[in-house]
Amino acid sequence: MKRRDKESLEFDELASYNVNRKDIQWFPGHMMKTLRIMEKEVKNVDVVIILLDARIPYSSMNPEIEKRIGNKPRIYIMNKRDLADPRITDKWIQYFKKKGMGAIAIDSKNGRNTKLIQNRISRELSDLMRRRQSRGIENMTVKAMMVGIPNVGKSTFINSLAGTQRAKAQDRPGVTRGKQWVTVGNLDLLDMPGVLWPKFENQNIASNLAFIGSIKDDVLDIETLAVSLIDEIKKIYPELLKERYKLSEDDLEADNYDILCNICRKRGMLLPGGVENTERCAIMLCDEFRASKMGRISLERPEDYE
Predict the structure, then answer these.
(1) DSSP β-ladder status, 74-79 and 103-105
(2) Average pLDDT of 209-220?
(3) Which residue has the higher pLDDT, 221 or 122?
(4) Which end of the chain is least crowded, N or C, by CB within 10 Å?
């Protein structure tokens, strides 16, 4: 398996680097700058909109963001619900309600949730709006900060709200590299770059972030990542794995790396001499998971965090 040489990475691009199956860390230098800007700018907004990934709601809650926004009113939005198991997403909504936090599950690509989100913002800021109206202020612009981990879909969400292409949106982490203001009706949105936290104490969380693409693949051993993903899906959605890659029950009893090799052969991903091209297969497997080609998969259940 290939490993990227640590010395070949630019220091200003990667402040923390350590990749193996049990220790994933990725904290580019610009993320610390983002956290500092966030701490400063949060004083100037009325509400914070926190985007989570519906497949990993717990893992996508950044403790560094929570610490910096303090007691500011917040709204949790579980994006990419179309990729997650709907039964599990409903459980997560109930989980947040029990915690007194509340959450909305959306698919920002279809643009159907715009009114729901705007109404939720209005409810969260009802006291503020009443105070403004009592002073004779009408149609006052609401300032909101949009935050989340890399690749959670912030730019797509903003474009959905605006109904036009206002922010950069690509399916890879790190596209938004600086703060930008976007106006949507009476809502001014400050879009912050995606940010992680300096050190992952829980490597299950780190793995989940890597699975959905919040950690750049080029700083990971992609084959190790794919093998770990096979292990995870085999435990919670074995039928989806079997169906997608034409595997038998006996196939799933094999070592996870052997399962990857088996998928290579079934997909015809072979090098000269019939050797399995496990790197190519690993990239394919991770991409298919992220595109929900295996099916709608949720990697976390709320009962694990009760």
Answers:
(1) parallel
(2) 89
(3) 221
(4) C
pLDDT of residue 124: 67
Which pLDDT belongs to residue 12?
Answer: 35
pLDDT surpasses 90 at 180? no
Label residue 167 exposed, middle or buried (CB < 10 Å: 0-12, 13-18, 19+): buried
Dihedral sign (CA 238, 241, 244, 250): negative
| pLDDT value of position 306 | 75
Q: pLDDT for 123-136, tens place per residue?
A: 766 776 777 677 77
Angle between helices 256-267 and 238-245 (to 10 degrees): 30
Query: What is the pLDDT, as a whole number, of residue 228?
Result: 96
C-alpha 39/C-alpha 124 separation (Å) is 21
Concatenated DSSP letters of the chain? -----GGGS-TTT-S-EEEETTEEEE--HHHHHHHHHHHHHGGG-SEEEEEEETTSTTTT--HHHHHHHTT--EEEEEE-GGGS-HHHHHHHHHHHHHTT--EEE--TTT-TTHHHHHHHHHHHTHHHHHHHHHTT--SPPEEEEEEE-TTS-HHHHHHHHHTS--S---SSTT---S-EEEEETTEEEEEPPP---S--S-HHHHHHHHHHTSS-GGGS-HHHHHHHHHHHHHHH-HHHHHHHHT--HHHHTS-HHHHHHHHHHHHT-EETTTEE-HHHHHHHHHHHHHTTSS----S--GGGG-
pLDDT at 8: 37
The amino acid that residue 243 corresponds to is: E
- Contact residues for 59 (Cβ-Cβ < 8 A; gap 6+): 53, 204, 205, 208, 209, 299, 300
